[in-house]
Amino acid sequence: MDGPIYARPAISLIAEGLGPFGAALFIGGSAGASDIALLRRHQITTVVNCAVNLDINYVQTDLGTADLLASGFGDIRYYKVGLIDGEGSPDTMMLGAYYILDGALRQTMPKRKTYPFPDGGNVLVNCRSGRSRSVSLVALFLHKQQPHLYPSLDDALAVIRERRELRPDEWFETPKPMLYAAAQRASEWIDMIEERRQPNS
Protein backbone atom coordinates (compact mmCIF):
# COMPACT_ATOMS: atom_id res chain seq x y z
CA MET A 1 0.00 0.00 0.00
CA ASP A 2 1.30 3.44 -0.93
CA GLY A 3 2.12 5.94 1.78
CA PRO A 4 0.88 9.53 1.87
CA ILE A 5 1.90 11.90 -0.93
CA TYR A 6 3.23 15.06 0.70
CA ALA A 7 3.24 18.53 -0.77
CA ARG A 8 6.69 19.45 -2.02
CA PRO A 9 8.15 21.83 -4.60
CA ALA A 10 7.32 21.19 -8.23
CA ILE A 11 11.06 20.90 -8.83
CA SER A 12 13.97 20.63 -6.39
CA LEU A 13 17.60 21.59 -6.90
CA ILE A 14 19.71 18.51 -6.18
CA ALA A 15 23.26 19.20 -7.41
CA GLU A 16 25.38 21.74 -9.27
CA GLY A 17 28.56 21.83 -11.32
CA LEU A 18 27.83 18.77 -13.46
CA GLY A 19 29.19 17.98 -16.91
CA PRO A 20 31.40 20.17 -19.08
CA PHE A 21 29.00 23.13 -18.79
CA GLY A 22 28.67 23.06 -14.99
CA ALA A 23 24.95 22.33 -15.09
CA ALA A 24 22.60 22.25 -12.13
CA LEU A 25 20.48 19.11 -11.78
CA PHE A 26 16.87 19.20 -10.60
CA ILE A 27 14.29 16.52 -9.79
CA GLY A 28 10.58 17.11 -10.29
CA GLY A 29 7.22 15.60 -11.10
CA SER A 30 4.81 16.12 -13.97
CA ALA A 31 3.67 19.53 -12.70
CA GLY A 32 7.21 20.90 -12.74
CA ALA A 33 8.21 19.28 -16.03
CA SER A 34 5.19 20.75 -17.83
CA ASP A 35 5.60 24.30 -16.48
CA ILE A 36 7.63 26.12 -19.15
CA ALA A 37 7.76 29.36 -17.16
CA LEU A 38 9.20 27.50 -14.16
CA LEU A 39 11.79 25.75 -16.33
CA ARG A 40 12.85 29.08 -17.84
CA ARG A 41 13.19 30.71 -14.42
CA HIS A 42 15.69 28.02 -13.44
CA GLN A 43 17.52 28.08 -16.80
CA ILE A 44 16.45 24.47 -17.43
CA THR A 45 17.06 23.73 -21.09
CA THR A 46 16.88 19.93 -20.92
CA VAL A 47 14.34 17.49 -19.50
CA VAL A 48 14.98 13.76 -19.00
CA ASN A 49 11.62 12.07 -18.43
CA CYS A 50 11.93 8.68 -16.68
CA ALA A 51 8.24 7.73 -16.80
CA VAL A 52 6.75 5.36 -19.38
CA ASN A 53 3.23 6.51 -18.45
CA LEU A 54 3.80 10.25 -18.81
CA ASP A 55 4.36 12.22 -22.01
CA ILE A 56 5.00 15.94 -22.29
CA ASN A 57 4.67 17.75 -25.62
CA TYR A 58 7.14 20.61 -25.91
CA VAL A 59 6.64 20.92 -29.67
CA GLN A 60 5.36 24.33 -30.67
CA THR A 61 3.79 23.30 -33.99
CA ASP A 62 0.03 22.79 -34.14
CA LEU A 63 -1.11 21.13 -37.36
CA GLY A 64 -4.80 21.48 -36.53
CA THR A 65 -5.76 17.97 -37.61
CA ALA A 66 -6.53 14.80 -35.71
CA ASP A 67 -4.70 12.68 -38.29
CA LEU A 68 -1.27 14.26 -37.92
CA LEU A 69 0.39 14.89 -34.60
CA ALA A 70 2.75 17.79 -34.03
CA SER A 71 6.40 17.02 -34.60
CA GLY A 72 9.55 19.06 -34.53
CA PHE A 73 11.30 20.86 -31.69
CA GLY A 74 10.35 23.19 -28.89
CA ASP A 75 12.14 25.31 -26.32
CA ILE A 76 13.31 22.26 -24.36
CA ARG A 77 15.62 19.43 -25.32
CA TYR A 78 13.63 16.34 -24.35
CA TYR A 79 14.82 12.83 -23.60
CA LYS A 80 12.51 9.95 -22.66
CA VAL A 81 13.28 6.80 -20.67
CA GLY A 82 10.30 4.52 -20.21
CA LEU A 83 10.76 3.16 -16.68
CA ILE A 84 7.89 1.53 -14.80
CA ASP A 85 7.35 2.71 -11.22
CA GLY A 86 7.71 -0.76 -9.74
CA GLU A 87 8.33 -4.20 -11.21
CA GLY A 88 8.56 -4.70 -14.95
CA SER A 89 11.53 -2.76 -16.34
CA PRO A 90 14.67 -4.73 -17.20
CA ASP A 91 17.61 -3.57 -15.08
CA THR A 92 19.43 -2.62 -18.29
CA MET A 93 16.95 0.25 -18.71
CA MET A 94 18.42 1.94 -15.63
CA LEU A 95 21.86 1.54 -17.17
CA GLY A 96 20.54 3.07 -20.39
CA ALA A 97 18.92 5.89 -18.42
CA TYR A 98 22.27 6.70 -16.81
CA TYR A 99 23.97 7.09 -20.18
CA ILE A 100 21.07 9.10 -21.59
CA LEU A 101 21.36 11.54 -18.68
CA ASP A 102 25.14 11.66 -19.09
CA GLY A 103 24.74 12.29 -22.82
CA ALA A 104 22.14 15.00 -22.23
CA LEU A 105 24.64 16.85 -20.04
CA ARG A 106 27.55 16.43 -22.46
CA GLN A 107 26.02 16.89 -25.92
CA THR A 108 27.19 19.83 -27.98
CA MET A 109 24.71 21.04 -30.57
CA PRO A 110 25.49 21.54 -34.26
CA LYS A 111 25.19 25.16 -35.35
CA ARG A 112 22.35 24.54 -37.80
CA LYS A 113 18.79 25.82 -38.06
CA THR A 114 17.39 22.38 -37.27
CA TYR A 115 19.27 22.36 -33.94
CA PRO A 116 18.08 25.58 -32.27
CA PHE A 117 19.28 24.54 -28.82
CA PRO A 118 22.15 26.29 -27.05
CA ASP A 119 24.84 24.21 -25.39
CA GLY A 120 24.67 24.09 -21.62
CA GLY A 121 21.80 25.00 -19.37
CA ASN A 122 20.37 23.12 -16.42
CA VAL A 123 18.69 19.71 -16.45
CA LEU A 124 15.47 18.43 -14.91
CA VAL A 125 15.00 14.70 -14.33
CA ASN A 126 11.33 13.92 -13.82
CA CYS A 127 8.83 11.15 -13.36
CA ARG A 128 5.19 11.44 -12.37
CA SER A 129 5.81 12.64 -8.80
CA GLY A 130 9.60 13.01 -8.61
CA ARG A 131 9.84 10.46 -5.81
CA SER A 132 11.03 7.12 -7.16
CA ARG A 133 12.18 6.63 -10.76
CA SER A 134 13.89 10.00 -11.02
CA VAL A 135 15.35 9.63 -7.51
CA SER A 136 16.93 6.26 -8.38
CA LEU A 137 18.45 7.59 -11.59
CA VAL A 138 19.83 10.77 -10.05
CA ALA A 139 21.28 8.86 -7.08
CA LEU A 140 23.07 6.56 -9.51
CA PHE A 141 24.27 9.50 -11.58
CA LEU A 142 25.63 11.51 -8.66
CA HIS A 143 27.38 8.49 -7.16
CA LYS A 144 29.15 7.72 -10.42
CA GLN A 145 29.88 11.32 -11.49
CA GLN A 146 30.85 12.83 -8.12
CA PRO A 147 32.19 9.95 -6.02
CA HIS A 148 34.21 12.40 -3.90
CA LEU A 149 30.88 13.84 -2.69
CA TYR A 150 28.80 10.65 -2.86
CA PRO A 151 31.08 7.64 -2.17
CA SER A 152 28.10 5.26 -2.20
CA LEU A 153 24.64 5.12 -3.72
CA ASP A 154 23.25 5.41 -0.18
CA ASP A 155 25.15 8.67 0.33
CA ALA A 156 23.62 10.14 -2.83
CA LEU A 157 20.15 8.93 -1.87
CA ALA A 158 20.38 10.52 1.58
CA VAL A 159 21.18 13.93 0.07
CA ILE A 160 18.41 13.61 -2.54
CA ARG A 161 15.83 12.69 0.10
CA GLU A 162 16.71 15.83 2.01
CA ARG A 163 16.81 18.19 -0.97
CA ARG A 164 13.67 16.73 -2.56
CA GLU A 165 11.90 16.87 0.84
CA LEU A 166 11.13 13.14 0.96
CA ARG A 167 10.00 12.40 4.50
CA PRO A 168 11.12 9.34 6.52
CA ASP A 169 7.69 7.70 6.56
CA GLU A 170 7.72 7.54 2.73
CA TRP A 171 11.28 6.31 2.35
CA PHE A 172 10.06 2.73 1.88
CA GLU A 173 8.94 3.76 -1.62
CA THR A 174 11.12 6.79 -2.34
CA PRO A 175 12.53 5.12 -4.30
CA LYS A 176 10.78 1.80 -4.83
CA PRO A 177 13.14 -1.01 -3.74
CA MET A 178 13.28 -2.70 -7.15
CA LEU A 179 14.33 0.56 -8.82
CA TYR A 180 17.03 1.14 -6.23
CA ALA A 181 18.24 -2.43 -6.76
CA ALA A 182 18.36 -1.74 -10.51
CA ALA A 183 20.49 1.34 -9.80
CA GLN A 184 22.85 -0.77 -7.68
CA ARG A 185 23.27 -3.30 -10.49
CA ALA A 186 23.72 -0.53 -13.04
CA SER A 187 26.46 0.95 -10.85
CA GLU A 188 28.39 -2.33 -11.07
CA TRP A 189 27.95 -2.48 -14.85
CA ILE A 190 29.12 1.13 -15.23
CA ASP A 191 32.31 0.25 -13.36
CA MET A 192 32.95 -2.62 -15.77
CA ILE A 193 32.19 -0.49 -18.84
CA GLU A 194 34.38 2.38 -17.72
CA GLU A 195 37.22 0.03 -16.79
CA ARG A 196 37.20 -1.37 -20.33
CA ARG A 197 37.30 2.16 -21.72
CA GLN A 198 40.56 2.91 -19.92
CA PRO A 199 43.65 2.70 -22.14
CA ASN A 200 45.92 -0.25 -21.40
CA SER A 201 48.71 0.68 -19.02
Describe the protein in words.
There is one protein chain. With 201 residues, this protein is an alpha/beta fold. The protein has a single domain (11-197), classed as Protein-Tyrosine Phosphatase, Chain A (Alpha-Beta Complex), CATH 3.90.190. Helices cover 35% and strands 17% of the residues. It has helices at residues 30-33, 36-41, 91-106, 133-145, 153-163, 177-197; strands at 11-18, 23-28, 44-51, 77-83, 122-126. It has a five-stranded mixed β-sheet with strand order 1-2-5-3-4. The longest helix has 21 residues, at 177-197. The chain is globular and about 50 Å long.
Query: How widely separated are the two ends?
Result: 52 Å
Fraction in helix: 25-40%
Quick one: CATH superfamily?
Protein tyrosine phosphatase superfamily
Mean of all residue-level pLDDT scores: 91
Low-confidence stretches are: none
Please give the count of helices.
Answer: 6
Return the CATH class. Answer: Alpha Beta
Structural domains: how many: 1
Query: Could you tell me the number of beta strands?
Result: 5
> What's the overall geometry?
globular
Element order, helices and strands? EEHHEEHEHHH
Structural class: alpha/beta
CATH architecture: Alpha-Beta Complex
Spatial arrangement of strands, main beta sheet: 1-2-5-3-4
SS strand fraction: 15-25%
Instruction: Find the CATH topology.
Output: Protein-Tyrosine Phosphatase, Chain A
* Sheet with the most strands, sense and barrel status: 5 strands, mixed
Task: Specify Rg, calculated over alpha carbons.
Answer: 17 Å
